[in-house]
């Protein structure tokens, strides 16, 4: 385990936010196996992301090399140029900037584009709906393949007017969702998912699963973790690797489990995650995550948090999860602390610190913060390092509140009578200035 | 026109019963104006023929026309004139002077100006206090004299004297403009006595009073309101919905640094607040609010320490010092000690271990004093409630109100649900 990962462990989870900028080591990550899960543009995008964020040179170069080959094979000049820039001549002559190739690809692309556009114009004059639709679709596909995402988006949207069957609509929605995810416009994703789900025909199970996964992703990116968890947990196992141009089934498992841990309470966790047969198929793909969910439910918080720490460096290289990892981890840790203290009247901070594998002073600070936010009803005896549960004395509180309400009432009524009087005289005298 | 001597004779003769007084009043009004004014310089010796208590009305008229001329005042500056006026104010008869309130107010104002010129505001306090009581028709009425009196008390630094007048609740206001000065000066007196809650009430009234255009008093009152709310509760409440729209829209524009101060306070950092105050020190000085601002600064420590009592049962002095941003544990001990003495927190300091244990509020609400306190509160509130219902009934029988409701009923039907009878916070 490299120095950075070790540092991340000793820092506790608080180090998550700072690590966002610094490169992270992940020499356990098998780049080839990881990339093999995905297809299409997302494979290249993810590889570039890994190269950017990873601190280890060997992995960086490996990822960049694969990204470069992939981009070249797909004739995607935008991604190719990006990859070459990042490689920066470190990989030898074959990986240098090949402007001739770029130019030839662009020329061919221009020709194809003109051909498609003339075809489309021909269809438009003929006013045959189906061919117009297919024409726009082809153009959309073309733009997408060459990395011009906003034009692809526009073309796909245009097909909407020419869709006749619900199958067409679903196809359009899937295209739009794909492009929106890459563009990062997740509001559109949610929109089109609901549009697709509302079509009158029953949908193919795979498509349903894809829609759920896409919806979950959109919720995750817009920080609605509870909704994201629900969507991921409802994704059927039919998803398999059919949606590899967006998401892999391991990702569904990881995202779903983390969001659920951070936002569900115990009963929901049990019913929707642990007892969920469909989701179990996903969890089998990532046994570490399955272990940590079970640990959390069984209150083995120490080992749960250890698993989380181990997974952290690899998860930081995931293109969708990265920004949210810090918040999710914090939420999970706070939940663990709150659940730990719930059943007790008094807790010795030393035992608690060893259970959570952190120092007593750090734990004390975390507890103080949680108490101030009113998430734990307790008070800390800093001298003896004990946490005492505290239940407000109802009788005293009631007296206090009653007296206070009386005072406020008195004050407000007096002020009101005064104001009423002022208004009365104002009407009698109009403008006293 | 009668001569002054004849007038004096009338006064002496007709100051008996109410009818006589009415007649006298008529005569005096006739004589007022040119006649008296022409002879004003020579009126002083005639005053000695009259008794201020029995012949208040006549005395008042003569006195008023005497002091209305500034030449006379300058001639008799200081000395006897003040004594005469003061004597009159303390011994005059309330009924008689209420027949000529403007003149009475004028005389009082002159007295105030005189004592201010002599730089001895304290001489005006006792006479003016008596004057306030005499001209009030009921203890709930506000007169223009209230503001003048409070101003004198402030200048003379006799805050306790001002308290006697402030303790009466004011419900009747003839001139809305008196209210602003009254609230402002009254609040300053309470601030001087460190009774921040009552000061806040008065400032709140000044800020939320109905007004069609902003006036300078309200702006100053708002500045103090921000500072006192920060000291009292750590935050500035937003405008309640009965505040006039002029106030809501414009007050913050004129008091921008105070608004910034309150946001800075909200961050909870002592050093930030200190730097902010230093950089804006002149602005605060020109507003004469620097003393209050310093109190706001020290209240920041108190608030942070109070927050600690919510989370900890015991805490070492070093930890207190570090979390409240004090420099040494000794300072922390001092602050905690002072707060315990002032009754702001309940705690015990263990010097041997350097620990402070925070205790719960020992009030058990079982003692007989508490029962008495609760009982008197209940009585007070019931009286207030009764007053409210009677005012409500009066308005419901009022002609203008009934007309409005009638025309309203023709246009739309009002449901019970449209009107919230009690604000939700009382539930």
TrEMBL record, chain A:
Domain PCI: 224-394
A Pfam family assignment: PCI
Annotated keywords: Cytoplasm, Nucleus, Signalosome
Membrane-spanning parts: none
Protein name: PCI domain-containing protein
Cellular-component GO terms for this entry: COP9 signalosome; cytoplasm
Family: Belongs to the CSN1 family.
Gene3D superfamilies in the cross-refs: 1.25.40.570
Subcellular location per the Swiss-Prot or TrEMBL entry: Cytoplasm; Nucleus
PANTHER family: 26S PROTESOME SUBUNIT 6 (PTHR14145), COP9 SIGNALOSOME COMPLEX SUBUNIT 1 (PTHR14145:SF2)
